[in-house]
From TrEMBL:
PANTHER family, sorted: WD REPEAT PROTEIN
Source superkingdom: Eukaryota
Upper classification of the organism: Eukaryota, Viridiplantae, Streptophyta, Embryophyta, Tracheophyta
Protein name in the entry: WD repeat-containing protein 49-like
Organism in which the protein naturally occurs: Gossypium hirsutum (Upland cotton)
Length: 312
């Protein structure tokens, strides 16, 4: 069998996949007793599953209480296309980088995934692939036309029917003080002062209680580049000291209080759009002192907008 990729014709010899490998704290196992070829090609028929009878089991440890949760599902070809593009098999000859824009291609592949299924990327993409997605998203700024393409739902006005937007997020965690920063939620809302704000929270019961005492609010601002690396970006989540002048916020949210360390030490998360409703961020602790060397707070963060049928 031959697979055509761009101007290349690559012969492929398919083998029944039976593998189990840990990667970035997430165990992904694929097994099958059939001899059907694995769906490692680019899909042409939307809605097809990743080969009948084959499932991917994802086990992930989330939260500071050490609780683990395992989910099992049959991924669709559109979802596996994203994984394959970020982590192609060795026997697939890559496209000539000069013949296409990788960020535009990744955007199209994410766009092909129905909105109600995009949350599966949080299980399918491990921290290493999330870092690769950040790098690929950087090629979007090489195209003057494509650089203007963004997720229009990030910034909105008071007339928006939905008062806030929720994203599910994943990263590789960080120092002990932010060990909970692995699987968490992000809420974006519009303030009555004309600015856009957000808040991070966790699903863990223990951390939920802590979140009420120390809510992690931030301000969403337009930003062209990461201060520490001078790499391009779209937005920045600036945590400041946490004492934002907010008179209105989503129901059930506590009032802003001063951030605990390290979030009080000039933490900024820089954002790149990689697809509709999907973002990737890079968190930096830039420090208050002039001679302080900025350092990354944690691994790159994948953010997927929570599906809300009322918005469609």
């Amino acid at each position: 069998m031959r697979v055509s990729i761009g101007s290349y014709n690559t012969p492929l010899s398919f083998v029944t996949p039976i593998c189990s490998r840990p990667s970035g704290g997430c165990l992904i196992s694929i097994s099958s007793s059939s001899h059907s070829p694995p769906a490692l090609r680019l899909s042409s028929f939307p809605g097809l599953r990743f080969c009948g009878g084959r499932k991917i089991s994802v086990g992930a440890r989330a939260g500071v209480n050490g609780a683990s949760e395992t989910t099992s599902f049959e991924p669709y070809l559109e979802e596996m296309d994203v994984v394959t593009f970020l982590d192609p098999p060795n026997y697939l000859i890559p496209l000539d980088p000069g013949s296409y824009n990788p960020a535009a291609y990744l955007w199209k592949k994410i766009e092909d995934i129905p909105e109600e299924r995009r949350h599966r990327l949080l299980q399918l993409l491990n921290p290493r692939l999330i870092s690769i997605a950040w790098e690929i998203a950087g090629t979007r700024y090489h195209d003057p036309k494509f650089v203007k393409k963004t997720d229009s739902n990030i910034r909105f006005n008071k007339d928006t029917a939905i008062p806030f937007h929720v994203y599910n997020c994943r990263t590789s965690g960080g120092p002990f003080l932010i060990a909970w920063l692995k699987f968490f939620k992000k809420t974006i809302f519009y303030g009555n002062n004309g600015k856009t704000y957000g808040r991070f929270s966790s699903g863990s019961i223990v951390v939920q209680f802590a979140n009420q005492l120390c809510p992690f609010y931030f301000e969403v601002t337009e930003m062209k580049e990461v201060m520490s690396t001078e790499q391009p970006c779209d937005l920045a989540y600036e945590f400041g000291d946490g004492l934002f002048d907010l008179d209105e916020f989503p129901s059930g949210f506590p009032k802003p209080v001063k951030h605990p360390y390290p979030f009080s030490d000039e933490v900024v998360i820089y954002i790149r759009h990689i697809g509709p409703g999907v973002l990737v961020g890079q968190a930096w602790q830039e420090g208050k002192e002039l001679d302080q060397v900025p350092q990354k707070l944690c691994g790159e963060i994948l953010m997927v907008k929570e599906y809300n049928p009322l918005e469609n």
